[in-house]
Amino acid sequence: MATAERQLLSGNEAIALAARDAGVALGTGYPGTPSTEILESFSKLGGRGQWSPNEKVALEVALGVAFGGARALVTMKHVGLNVAADPLFTAAYTGVVGGLVVVSADDPGMASSQNEQDNRHYAVAAGVPMLEPSDSQEAYDMVREAYVLSERWQLPVLLRATTRVCHSYTVVTPRGPNGGPPKPRFERDVRGRVMIPANARPAHRRLRRKLAEVQAWNESSGLNRVVQGSRRLGVITSGISFMHVQEAAPEASVLKLGCTHPLPLEAIAAFVRSVDRCVVVEEGDPYLVNAIRAAGLPVEGKPEMYRFGELDVGRVRRILQGDSQPEPPKPPGKPPQLCDGCQYRVVFESLRRHDCIVAGDIGCYTLGVLPPFEAMDSCVCMGASVGVGLGLRHVLPAEQARRVVSVIGDSTFVHSGITGLVEMVYNPPPDGHVLIILDNNTTAMTGHQEHPGTGRKLNHEPTGRLVLEDLARALGVPRVHVVEPRVDSEQFDRLLEECLASRQLCVIIARRPCLLIVKRLRELERRECRSTDNPCQTA
Amino acid sequence: MPDSLTNVVIAGLGGQGVLTASDILAQAALRAGFDVKKSEIKGMSQRGGSVTSDVRFGRRVLSPMVPAGEADYLLVLDASQVECSRHYLAPGGKLILPTAVNPDQLPNKRSLNVALLGVLSAHLSLPEDCWLAALREGFRPEFFEGNRQAFLLGRTGPTPNPTA
């Protein structure tokens, strides 16, 4: 069988393959770099993978799968877990029947993110076990182990990967199916799953007991290992940093932690005692070093400057030498820009011409902040454009307030903009507001994934479609316009001017498919024509 | 198998085929029996920004990233990307520029990445059949012949431009 051979897989592909081999019944998630390829690969491997409107919904659907006794996978980028944090914290109380693995793909260095939050803190805060792979083989093995762990202690498990694990290709030898998928069936457990206070109080105590058991198990689990070296230098590390450490200090003894919550503090203490000098090397926040020091163990951490950005072999060498001299700046490359011919260029030129104050959002169109447009004044998180724009409208002097516009993409709007639009109708600013939805019929920034507004599923098959203008009208927005932004037309510009002057609540849907998916769209439409009896127009 | 590691960095602009080229190199090395790691930052790769991809192979590879100053080969697909990626190159490392192939001899303009891999291949000890198998797997079947020609053009070295 081909799967038994050595394969060069990205961490994301390895996670997908392991999920397939573990018999995962449903994979859910929302696209986000560097996590996106997991569900896409899972689907290509024959797994059932689906995009949800956002990470919170994805985790809730997965939790239902796990309550039903089947295995579930949820994938997201680090900031996605902020959105899904609400169900995560209480899912730790309810527990699961089928295994539930939550993948958080963190982005230290912010190759493609708005912050570099370290999601290891979530494992501690929510009280869930956490595994951290350092290459694709480990990602594969740890996903399999995570399902076993999850079902043994009936807890969701966090698999925390980072950009250099997700997007690096390393050799994987698959191990074939592990554990048949349990047969889904509903078993009533009101006290365990209905988290009214009377049930939640014992559930919290139960969670802490489970975590104490997991910690005891982790003291000798195969997920952590010691690479014996010189006793003069010991390094405690996890994730991708393990690879950098072995290259930077081949002579060192290394305690490589695979399960980093709950920490095996006795094993760590034994390792610290076995070496003369012990340094903790970790990317991001001082999570390990603080926990180990809190246990009273004498370990060195890294200078604060290495908290920022990702680690590499050179930086690990400097950490081990205690070098906190300023680092040479990296030569700047060419920044990305809105594609030539992108319809959003028309929108941003118009926003600039009207001297708008633009509350922006997350997506390709965030590039509207760069020259020549420089037409964006804020970008915080998914959906924030709507709320931030409303807040500005509420307090700015009228002359400025009337120039405030919120700009959001179609996928982002579905993810987190809808509740903002409800707010706009519920608490309208005195001079109204203008929300522009840039609808290019895809989630472009992350590589053109489908979303509820495209009417296609993850695998591009047709499904129910959310019609944005119908939704806006149904919410009670008085002015809803759909317009195609075109280079050779002033229609968009005139419409924007009209809306700004109207002092009403306005939604402008600037709709035109992303240039980069036009070919694929035509192909899909042709295929759908062939498979139905509907008379189709030819493109 | 020698213990030493071969470090290659491929640099260019989004849309030039940097990631495809590094895929081919990594697959060729895998087929030759080496441990291989390949790492890249690709979040912005479709929007014309700088893209680099690191490929390392040898008996055992640890970090997936080529440390600054340790690239044995720096293959640059666009001349504008030389200065911002030069710091990867090891002292005595080899810089391969887009001018290493004659663009008039390419089967098509988009095969520059594969032709430059051909140039790189002449410096490496990976067997030719591993390269060709990787090229065959890496593209749709109808593109294989053009890519094979582009690869061999780079591998066998520049021939004088008949019109020059």
Could you walk me through the main structural features you see in this protein, from its secondary elements to its overall organization?
The complex is a heterodimer of chains A (539) and B (164). With 539 residues, chain A is an alpha/beta fold. Chain A folds into 3 domains: 2-218, Thiamin diphosphate (ThDP)-binding fold, Pyr/PP domains (Rossmann fold), CATH 3.40.50; 225-320, Rossmann fold (3-Layer(aba) Sandwich); 344-531, Thiamin diphosphate (ThDP)-binding fold, Pyr/PP domains (Rossmann fold). Chain A is 40% helix and 17% strand. Chain A has 20 helices and 18 strands. In chain A, helix 1 (11-21) crosses helix 6 (136-153), helix 10 crosses helix 13 and helix 15 (384-395) runs parallel beside helix 17 (410-426). With 164 residues, chain B is of the alpha/beta class. Chain B has one domain (6-155): 3-Layer(aba) Sandwich (Pyruvate-ferredoxin Oxidoreductase, domain 3), CATH 3.40.920. In chain B, 29% of the residues lie in helices and 23% in strands. Chain B contains 4 helices and 5 strands, in the order βαββββααα. In chain B, helix 1 (18-31) crosses helix 3 (128-138) and helix 2 crosses helix 4. The A-B interface holds A 6, 8, 33-34, 111-112, 135, 163-164, 167-171, 240, 243-244, 246-247, 312-314, 330-339, 364, 367, 447, 516 and B 13-14, 23, 26-27, 30, 35-44, 46-50, 52, 61-65, 67-68, 80-81, 83-87. Strand 8 of chain A pairs antiparallel with strand 2 of chain B, so a sheet runs across the interface.
